[in-house]
Automatic annotation (TrEMBL):
<dbReference type="InterPro" id="IPR005846">
    <property type="entry name" value="A-D-PHexomutase_a/b/a-III"/>
</dbReference>
<dbReference type="GO" id="GO:0046872">
    <property type="term" value="F:metal ion binding"/>
</dbReference>
<dbReference type="Pfam" id="PF02879">
    <property type="entry name" value="PGM_PMM_II"/>
</dbReference>
<dbReference type="GO" id="GO:0005975">
    <property type="term" value="P:carbohydrate metabolic process"/>
</dbReference>
<keyword id="KW-0479">Metal-binding</keyword>
<feature type="domain" description="Alpha-D-phosphohexomutase alpha/beta/alpha">
    <location>
        <begin position="55"/>
        <end position="157"/>
    </location>
</feature>
<protein>
    <submittedName>
        <fullName>Putative phosphoribomutase</fullName>
    </submittedName>
</protein>
<keyword id="KW-0460">Magnesium</keyword>
<dbReference type="InterPro" id="IPR005845">
    <property type="entry name" value="A-D-PHexomutase_a/b/a-II"/>
</dbReference>
<dbReference type="InterPro" id="IPR036900">
    <property type="entry name" value="A-D-PHexomutase_C_sf"/>
</dbReference>
<dbReference type="InterPro" id="IPR016055">
    <property type="entry name" value="A-D-PHexomutase_a/b/a-I/II/III"/>
</dbReference>
<dbReference type="Pfam" id="PF02880">
    <property type="entry name" value="PGM_PMM_III"/>
</dbReference>
<dbReference type="GO" id="GO:0005634">
    <property type="term" value="C:nucleus"/>
</dbReference>
<feature type="domain" description="Alpha-D-phosphohexomutase alpha/beta/alpha">
    <location>
        <begin position="169"/>
        <end position="294"/>
    </location>
</feature>
<keyword id="KW-0413">Isomerase</keyword>
<dbReference type="GO" id="GO:0006166">
    <property type="term" value="P:purine ribonucleoside salvage"/>
</dbReference>
<dbReference type="GO" id="GO:0008973">
    <property type="term" value="F:phosphopentomutase activity"/>
</dbReference>
Amino acid sequence: MVYKVYWENAVQIIEPHDKGIADSIMANQQPRTWDVENVYSSDLCVDISDWSELYFEYIASLSRHRSLNQQTSLKFVNTSMHGVSNAPMTRAFDIFGLPPYIAVAAQQQPDPEFPTVKFPNPEEKGALDLAISTANECGAQYILAQDPDSDRFAAAEKGPDGKWIVFTGDQLGTLFASLTLERYKSSGTPLAKLAMVASTVSSKMIEAMAAAEGFKFVECLTGFKYIGNTALALEQEGYEVPFGYEEAIGYMFGSELRDKDGVAASVVFAEMAVALEREGKTAHSRLQELYNLYGFFKTSNSYFICTNSPTIDNIFARIRNYDGKGTTGKPSYPRTIAGLTVTSVRDLTIGYDTSNPPSYKPTLPLSSGHMIQFRAESPTGHTKITLTTRTSGTEPKIKYYLEGSGKNAQEVQALLPKVVAELSDEWMQAEQNGLGRS
Ligand SMILES: O=P(O)(O)O[C@H]1O[C@H](CO)[C@@H](O)[C@H]1O
């Protein structure tokens, strides 16, 4: 069973509460029998079964132009990926005044066998195949997808050549950040009050947007427990935090719900598509405009599979002492990759950040697994990359998050496969270490 644990601040628990709960579990290892009914009579137990209306009031608060939505001729296909989103999505579309979507019939209802997909994750290759054929049959312009527990969101757009453009989590995050910024500007509140949050492995395009526009951007560790808590801390400092995201297709809107929500993201995206269409634009064309404004950013994220912890530890130990001259207090990381010079290294496992002398302590908290972020640039300084490699907290994977940026899109795109090749062959020694690939 998968569940989330929230603290009384309505945000997922982090330290010290996670440790406190774990300690309590360890201190109570003997099974005890007790009357479950006692739970319901306790003052500590609050029945939240009628709170769903509040949730839909929250959804309604996110809509900006219901009447325009009612007039749109855009068609949306939606897949619930055999999960739970169909009922709330239907209601959310109605609340937003959007025309009913065309559901992917075979994936509309919950089915724990997930019979039509290899992996029930909209990010996986092929997961949107059925949605794409449904959309082609009915002439839809956009596909919306929620993952089975409906807290994450993916989208695709039919390109002018008829091919489907599946947006990455970062591209959607950038579109949402820009939409949030526009809305905030039109509210008249000074931009100095606005803050947005993203995990440190998400695109740095939001950082570039913040620098160009003058709002605050804060990064945090991966996972919505950190995004929600960072947003909460910023609010306590006096900021408004109407948006936060992580590249793993998780999006948070507004201050009432400090967690990712696939339904909210879907209707906000659909409403954005409606507004863009009235200007003769699409989500994809808007993204190209944003590249012109803030620079071109392209991600290439993937992972290696490794079930053997000692192998993983050895790989990271080697990266921390790449030329054999490292010491305990002063690691020695690779200095180049794919012809680029490494300009900074932030190691969130051992707590070492080359860009923060003289203490070399990172400003972000330490990660429970391995996590090292490299920034590197070309000899001209025109093309830059951020490369983070970390162990997954949920799967036997070494994940990597690579992003290139610069003015010359072709140069950036040509560089990424070379970085991945050196990461795989030299840094990870993927073949010698028997690492699997996605
Ligand atoms: O990378 P791990 O630790 O598996 O966590 C994953 O789980 C979350 C998404 O469901 C994201 O934070 C993603 O990165």
